[in-house]
């Protein structure tokens, strides 16, 4: 198939015919005193069951990363963000394909400034990978002799053998392998990943769960230096994938799997039986009829040429064939699943209680109703505080708190006299005075750390924020720290005024202090506003 032909498809006769339409853009150009002329740029759109393909002209905006301008509109062009999220995101694959002759022009920033003009030696020496993966193809004569056989031995001989290279000689060895016809796989430079991964996760709306508790991104950028004849057999991933074809071409076959939110991939070409069984059991939760052995009919096919952008969602079957030498990168994005977020929170509520089998069952019988009751009183914000959104504030000094700058008035429900609040059962405020050495001089402030949802195996907090409070209001913070019952704004304000009398020290604008304290702790997930319950 020539590069200008965007799609082939194999399908059952009964399937609804895909349709095509033309989007017409106009651009004006002037030449001296000549009248402006309109140039028609046709964008053919194929809207199939498994894949949507747009073709753009030379008017397509360049893809430039690391600027203040939004990245997604130029990446998706000519598809709009609204159409992408409504009709494509997590539903089907999408290709933005340059018209013939356009090539990689709009990827020049990525190639020149972030991919070292595709220089193999530089890419290998700047990789974030600890090891370089190599795929060696078997001798063509052997492949030819067994290509029509169906025996297990023939299938084994057709497989591409892979191995890893690490250590001081890894780069030189990888270059030798590549020169001998092997395909390479490794991660991009950390500099590129540190820019592109957060940029995409932010604009896609998944950056709140796209990072580990220590701040490291869960996503990565994979570099594929693929040789002619390299084939990756049918499989699907559990990541959201954004591929940029930088050199050469690849044929992709695409088909939906019916698994919309996979916890694991499906890699039937792997030899590890334990891995395959783990994959199968997770997919059978969503679809009891799921099978690794599926009909290859009814797939759709597209050739990615130089300059193509390709989105393929988690859970979509794909097979990749290289008709020529190819270089591409794939931005692989991972976000925490709701099952991870909720299950980690539930561990807080249950606690750790080792018993023998009989005692464990008895304990569980009494615990489950209580757990259901506790969960029924929780809100989504207990698990997903607004402060999870990045960029995050790692610390606050209450004395210098700028409510307007933080935009807390729009991020937190309006607080009034009868507003009621409840402490998040999976959040704690830890006074650092318990672990810091006491100073000889009396401090005029005290520090606390807020932790939210740390029920994972590493006990790493989803939210971890340092907070500094003037000593005059530390009694309010400590009152909130041990509070277990629902309380009202008026109760906390009355406590503040009682403290003023007890200490014979007036608190400037007690009502404002209480309001801002509640806003700060609500925004960061320590307490939740009960107004809507």
UniProtKB/TrEMBL annotation:
SUPFAM superfamilies, A to Z: Clavaminate synthase-like
Domain of life according to the entry: Eukaryota
Keywords tagged on the record: Iron, Metal-binding, Nucleus, Oxidoreductase
Cofactors demanded by this protein: Fe(2+)
GO molecular function: metal ion binding; oxidoreductase activity
GO cellular component terms attached to this protein's record: nucleus
Polar residues composition bias: residue spans: 25-34
Main location: nucleus
All residue ranges annotated as the JmjC domain in the record: 186-350
Protein known as: JmjC domain-containing protein
Organism: Planoprotostelium fungivorum
Origin organism lineage: Eukaryota, Amoebozoa, Evosea, Variosea, Cavosteliida
